[in-house]
Design brief:
Keywords: Glycosidase, Hydrolase, Signal. This protein is mainly β. Helices cover 4% and strands 45% of the residues.
């Protein structure tokens, strides 16, 4: 039997590498635990006006969808917005793609825009207008949307070890998800494969690992060896648009690219 195992290790090394290890999420924590000070405004306000220089902000408003669908138009999107209607993901907007058709039953609905500031402009004419978040006009079917609730999301300032988690159920809107894993026997570098996810942040054992975005070429993050334990490692993931409760991440022994 030992000879067979040794032969398999030589012929099929991938089966025994970190890349074969799947990390399942089993718990979730709502974003309400990391809400900052809520601001009410008739119009959209840039992040700086609500005290946020970097990170995430949630913009919410009550809207009326006239006849089953209507075009949502935003004047400025800096830099990325995940659009939800009544907790159902609709799509994404950027400053190069500022219109999205919303489909819903006619009537009143809650519009939720989860926005991330990806970074600051450091060159070119736009350096004089470095506002982030959403600002300017917001229209639905040509009509101005007013009455906004604007909430800073203190994602990057949060210690994930202090969040209160519960058993993972349907995640219709962005939340924190947590899983546990034991480290498989492995020598060399270990990468976290984030392919299949959207845009967000990840921590392991309370250490901030980094951010990810499905539009980037590289879809993995190097895990420092010193933060991993042999057993009971905790992974916490925040994602703006991947709400599949069955979504998993994986460990890889090499970087992962699209």
């Amino acid at each position: 039997m030992n000879k067979i195992c040794l032969l398999l290790c030589c012929l099929l090394p991938g089966l025994f590498r970190a890349g074969a290890q799947e990390l399942k999420m089993t718990e979730c924590a709502p974003l309400t635990q990391i809400y900052g000070e809520v601001c009410e405004s008739d119009e959209l306000l840039p992040m700086g006006d609500v005290g946020v220089e970097f990170g995430y902000v949630l913009y919410q408003a009550a809207i009326t969808v006239p006849a089953g669908e209507a075009a949502l138009e935003l004047e400025n999107v800096r830099d990325y917005a995940a659009v939800y209607l009544d907790g159902v993901f609709q799509g994404t907007l950027t400053d190069n793609r500022k219109t999205l058709t919303l489909k819903a039953e006619p009537g009143r609905h809650t519009l939720q825009l989860y926005v991330e500031n990806i970074g600051r402009i450091t060159y070119g004419p736009e350096i004089l207008d470095n506002s982030k978040g959403l600002f300017g006009e917001a229209r639905l079917g040509g009509e101005t949307i007013a009455g906004w609730t604007i909430t800073p999301l203190e994602v990057r300032d949060t210690d994930p070890e202090t969040l209160e988690f519960e058993a993972l159920g349907p995640c219709n809107t962005p939340c924190f998800r947590r899983g546990q894993f034991d480290r498989a026997a492995h020598e060399g570098a270990v990468y976290l494969d984030v392919s299949g996810w959207g845009m967000g942040e990840v921590w392991i054992n309370g250490h901030y690992l980094g951010s990810f975005w499905d539009e980037e070429k590289q879809q993995s993050i190097l895990i420092p060896a010193e933060i991993l334990a042999e057993k009971g490692n905790r992974i916490v993931v925040f994602d703006l648009k991947n709400n599949d409760p069955g979504a998993t991440m994986r460990l890889s022994d090499k970087p992962v690219f699209k």
